[in-house]
Design goal:
Number of helices: 14
Distance between the termini: 59 Å
Mean pLDDT: 79
Largest sheet: 2 strands, antiparallel
Low-confidence stretches: 325-329
Radius of gyration: 21 Å
Shape: globular
Number of strands: 2
Helix content: over 70%
């Protein structure tokens, strides 16, 4: 079954309108949302994704519907894991909490553009070269191993060489001026630290796209499903940022769950590459018929089951209860409270 053109066009129009409204709300009324407000927005976007999944099942059938749900859950899980990096970036640069929504929204737009480019390139490459699944599979297996073994603590406080270079080259103020990129200091036009924050967020988004796009292409080869799953995973991410905050440190087993999911998808990709093999030095260029194709419903069950087990185990774990909120996050929260007073 092919995805109806009217369904694809209508989906992009509706999602574009929702994103535009979300952006206008941030620009018109920059503020730090309350827990209630953030929770309602997150619930709205999750419900919207589930409604879209239901429409996929109804209009396109269970195969495409299952692919969307599996892709969305995978991308959403990766986004939650990456959210902690955004939290650290905001705290490191002491971005005023009033303007953190604006920074996150810009970061989401950058992520959508970058992922759109990656998705378009990936779809073309997959269409022309089936052997690319071997590369995607091997890359995801390596990423899974790195995710499980690398704490990332050594790199957190190391400033990117490009950012350090920009600080030396560009005239820059010491303090933020609201959400502005440029301000005037002693009669001279200079950049604010907000520029560095945007560049850091953008570079981080690029790294996230490199990891996440091969993962979802292991679940579906439909560029439409890949892109919509990414949109729904990113929508509501800024509200989730304020809802979770320091609680991210409590999800102690999330990275292990993601390493399992990435490894599973990596194996799935390698098996698919073997099934459609055309490389002359593997099996004489013939398809490897015994290599199984893992069904979508199995992928969905493994992904959802792994996430549920990781979240429950994290909430019940003594290690999670002992986990401390990052010192920079505590300092950021104190600054927010003092500004409110």
């Amino acid at each position: 079954m092919e995805l109806p053109v009217w369904f694809e066009v209508g989906s992009f129009v509706a999602l574009g309108i929702i994103l535009a409204i979300d952006l206008l709300l941030v620009v018109k009324r920059p503020h730090e949302p309350t827990m209630k407000e953030a929770g309602l927005w997150v619930a709205f976007y999750v419900a919207l994704a589930l409604v879209f999944a239901g429409a996929m099942f109804y209009f396109t059938g269970p195969e495409y519907g299952g692919q969307f749900v599996a892709g969305w859950v995978t991308e959403y899980s990766l986004s939650i894991d990456n959210l902690f990096v955004f939290i650290i970036i905001m705290a490191r640069f002491s971005v005023p909490r009033k303007y953190q929504q604006e920074v996150l929204m810009v970061g989401i737009i950058i992520a959508l553009v970058l992922r759109g480019i990656f998705i378009a390139l990936g779809a073309v490459v997959i269409e022309q070269f089936s052997w690319v699944f071997y590369i995607f599979g091997a890359f995801l297996l390596w990423t899974a191993w790195k995710q499980a073994t690398d704490s990332g603590e050594d790199e957190e406080d190391v400033e990117n060489p490009l950012i350090a270079r920009l600080r030396k080259v560009l005239p820059m103020s010491e303090k933020f001026d609201g959400g502005k990129l440029r301000t005037t200091v002693d009669g001279k036009k200079v950049f604010t630290p907000m520029l560095i924050v945007f560049i850091t967020i953008g570079m981080t988004d690029l790294l996230f796209a490199v990891d996440s796009i091969p993962a979802i292409f292991g679940l579906t080869q439909s560029a439409f499903i890949v892109f919509t799953a990414n949109i729904f995973a990113l929508m509501g991410l800024r509200q989730l940022y304020f809802l979770l905050g320091g609680l991210m440190t409590r999800l102690v087993y999330l990275k292990h769950a993601l390493s399992v999911i990435l490894a599973f998808i990596g194996v799935k990709l390698v098996l698919h590459a073997m099934h459609v093999n055309e490389l002359p030095f593997i099996n004489g260029g013939r398809h490897i018929e015994w290599a199984p194709e893992i069904p979508t419903f199995v992928s969905l069950a493994v992904i959802v089951g792994t996430i549920v087990v990781a979240v429950v185990a994290s909430l019940l774990s003594p290690a999670a209860r002992r986990a401390k909120i990052d010192a920079r996050l505590e300092e950021d929260a104190k600054k927010s409270m003092s500004q409110a007073d």
